[in-house]
Design brief:
Blueprint: E1 4-5, E2 10-11, E3 16-17, E4 22-29, E5 34-35, E6 40-50, E7 55-56, E8 61-63, E9 70-72, E10 77-78, E11 83-85, E12 88-89, E13 94-95, E14 100-101, E15 106-107, E16 112-113, E17 118-119, E18 124-125, E19 129-133, E20 136-141, H1 145-163, H2 173-190
Parallel strand pairs: 1-4, 2-4, 3-5, 4-6, 5-7, 6-8, 6-9, 7-10, 8-11, 9-12, 10-13, 11-14, 12-15, 13-16, 14-17, 15-18, 16-19
Antiparallel strand pairs: 19-20
């Protein structure tokens, strides 16, 4: 079984797309992104762009708004059961389980949106924010870039394993060593 990819979907190579994913319309999936189990992406009237190394986890729904596409930056983690609707997610963001981000919202790079958060239409979140609540609001300012990029790396490695039938990458000592090396690389890159 293969994933359903509509005729307008552009997979720019080396992306992992789970066979249960359903992707329709004007969708661009950039290199090393991963689309996990039961994800639905619909882009009938605008476009969706999923940036490099972004991971779209199980049961995520991505749709476009009325006059707004959905853009997801590089190294983002869109976690389980999130709804993204016509919004822009900056680079190296983590969107927590069950969050909903509505039309015209913009999430600044290096941010975390906590699980269960609801962001109403047009909300602008500055870079390096931690956002919580319904409606969501910034509760702290902190650069989360390294932690968020490390989470994206974790999913990149998992996707590479899944692509070859290895569903236990995270349990291996070699993987833990690779994560430590990547963490040190990201920290040195920031200094």
């Amino acid at each position: 079984m293969t994933a359903f990819l509509g005729p307008d979907v552009r997979d720019l190579g080396a992306a992992y797309i789970d066979p249960s994913a359903r992707i329709f319309g004007d969708v661009e999936i950039q290199a090393e992104a991963s689309i996990w189990c039961n994800v639905v992406v619909r882009a009938e009237s605008d476009r969706v762009v999923i940036g490099p190394r972004a991971n779209i986890q199980d049961f995520v729904m991505i749709h476009v708004g009325s006059g707004t596409g959905t853009i997801i930056g590089a190294d983002c983690s869109i976690t389980h059961h999130v709804t993204l609707h016509g919004c822009t997610i900056g680079q190296a963001c983590l969107i927590g389980i069950g969050a909903t981000i509505m039309d015209g919202c913009q999430i600044g790079e290096g941010s975390i949106v906590a699980g269960g958060t609801f962001l109403k239409e047009g909300t602008i979140i500055p870079p390096n924010s931690i956002v919580m609540g319904a409606p969501g609001a910034v509760t702290k300012t902190r650069d989360n870039t390294v932690a968020n990029r490390l989470n994206a790396f974790l999913y990149l490695k998992n996707a590479q394993g899944y692509a070859v039938g290895d569903f236990r990458v995270w349990s291996k000592a070699a993987f833990r060593a690779e994560m430590a090396t990547e963490r040190n690389r990201l920290l040195s890159e920031q200094s």
